[in-house]
Amino acid sequence: MDAIILQLFNGLEKGSAYALIALGLTLIFGTLGVVNFAHGALFMIGAFCAVTLSRIFQISFLTEDPTQTDFLGNPLQVETPYVEKWFGADAGAWMIDYSVPLSILLTIPVMLLVGYVMERGLIKHFYKRPHADQILVTFGLAIVLQEVVRYFYGANPIQTTSPSDYSGTVNIGAMFGMQIFYPVWRLVYFFFSAIVIGGVFAFLQFTTFGMVVRAGMADRETVGLLGIDIDKRFTLMFGIAASVAGLAGVMYAPILSPNYHMGMDFLVLSFVVVVVGGMGSLPGAVAAGFLLGILQSFASLNEVKAIIPGIDQIIIYVVAIVILLTRPRGLLGRRGVMEE
Questions:
Q1: pLDDT at 179
Q2: Cα separation of 71 and 177, whole Å?
Q3: Contact 218/208 with Cβ under 8 angstroms?
Q4: What's the confidence (pLDDT) of residue 2?
Q5: Is 259 strand, coil or helix?
Q6: If you count Cβ atoms within 10 Å of the first and of the last residue's Cβ in the chain, which end, N or C, has fewer?
Q7: Which residues of the chain have pLDDT under 70?
Q8: Contact yes or no for 46/329 (Cβ under 8 A)
Q9: Where are its TM segments located (predicted)?
Q10: Which helix (DSSP H) or strand (DSSP E) does residue 78 occupy?
Q11: CA 97, CA 92: separation in Å to the nearest integer?
């Protein structure tokens, strides 16, 4: 039972990342009809926003510390971060410790800008082109972005730590009378993902802007005939989708050390999630993300791998094949989508 509960939480954590990335992908496909193979790179950029802010906070200068001396009795020179000089020792140390969650404040405007530039500078020229062209150009863009990141940050993974208050473990099995310890930050990531997903759905469901966007997703031409500039709203939705992917990346940095190819690693999985959930279906993307995350987690149990070796590596693709053969539009996809 303890192994089952542990794998369930692992699945929810994996599913959170899959759902966030797939949600952004579905927003772009549902509004613009674009298959964006650069979406994984947006996840990577978000993770490196956390790396960047952490490095900025740790920029330091040398000062003499009279409380520390060398063997000759001379004061030692120590590195003091500028944030500790500007904001005080306690506040500066707190900012360095909480650099990952504080990176959200940097990530949102950065990803909105990146999304706007991508859509206006490149994507808009491929709206009426075949999906194959869209895949090729966005995949090429993803390669360019990851090579730029590798040039500035190197090829090795960069360890990024969570705040010290959330770096330990918590006994999640206490309510069941068991001893099951789980990393606190992974629980934080799950709840953070739930908040972001709920925020996106609330924005689309309860705001006038969101209702217009949903109407445009259903019938773009009719909305345009009503005198509404739907293109501008869709451009903003591209930026929001990029921000969702960036937020998924920035909070995932302490779980998976950022590296230049992490976007590609998540890209294929997220597209499988979108296909399983249904192209253009936002609830389908979220449901499929958590479903596949949980299935992948349980497939990694030693008891399961002893029966079917390597099943944890292919379970997601097996599910996708079954879904495509039996229900081509996906679990919650609209009738007629991917069924021609």
A1: 81
A2: 56
A3: no
A4: 75
A5: coil
A6: C
A7: 1, 70-72, 176, 334-340
A8: no
A9: 16-35, 42-62, 91-114, 187-213, 234-255, 267-294, 306-325
A10: strand 75-81
A11: 9
Element (H, E) at 30: helix 2-32
| pLDDT computed for residue 70 by the predictor | 67
Separation CA 73–CA 97 (nearest Å): 32
Residue 48 tokens read as: 């490196």
Nearest to 40 by CA among 268, 323, 291: 268
Within 8 A by CB and 6+ apart from 55, the residues are none
Please give the DSSP secondary-structure letter assigned to residue 161. Answer: P
Judge contact between 219 and 202, C-beta under 8 A. Answer: no
Cα–Cα dist 246/30, whole Å: 19
- For residue 42, the SS3 value is helix
Chain segment 165-191, per-residue pLDDT in tens: 898 888 877 776 778 888 899 999 999
Structure tokens at 79: 């590195």
Q: How far lies 125's CA from each of 59, 101, 114, 137, 169, in Å?
A: 41, 36, 17, 11, 49
- Measuring CA to CA, which residue among 308, 304, 272, 311 is closest to residue 291? 272
Report the distance separating Cα 240 and Cα 28, nearest Å: 9
Q: Which residues are registered as beta bridge partners of 60?
A: 81
CA angle 138, 140, 145 (to 5 degrees): 90
pTM: 0.88
CA–CA separation, 84 and 107 (whole Å): 23
Alpha-carbon distance 258 to 150, whole Å? 11
What's the CA gap between 297 and 315, in Å, rounded?
Answer: 10
| 279/22 Cα distance (integer angstroms) | 10
Residue with tokens 């389908």: 284
pLDDT of residue 229: 80
Query: d(Cα 332, Cα 162) in Å, to the nearest integer?
Result: 36
Structure tokens at 335: 């009738």
DSSP run (H or E) holding 208: helix 208-218
Report the mean per-residue pLDDT for the chain. 86
Burial of 116 from C-beta contacts in 10 A (0-12 / 13-18 / 19+): middle
Longest CA–CA span in the chain (Å) reads 83
